[in-house]
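Reagents: none. Just compute today. Heme-binding protein 2.
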Amino acid sequence: MTAPVLMKIPEKSIFKRDVYTMSFLLPEEYQMNPPKPTNNAVYIQEMPAMNVYVLSHGDMMHTFSDNKYSKELSTALDTAGAQYRKGFHYTAGYDSPKPKKNRHSEVWYVVEGDPVCSGSE
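Predicted 3D structure written out:
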């Protein structure tokens, strides 16, 4: 497995079916010539460089923790007057599914314009 496992989570809507995108980041040695997927539902996508606002937490990646931490981060960003892409966010998991404690997971919102903070503020 690669780390992090990245999930693109759409903003909830009762009018549309949610489509989640799970990404496995390729190690640098495979990026110039990635292996060809053997399943039509799997595809190679290049992600552009981006700045993100991040909230780290120690919970597993699941709906409850995602709802909790994405709301916490978006509320903090709104309070700070930060500009960020709405309509989706990312959740990133850095651990295998086995450990239940001392995990490292994150919620990301993509920065629009210049960040209002830097470092670990």
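The first strand starts at residue 5 and ends at 10.
Action item: order primers for follow-up constructs.
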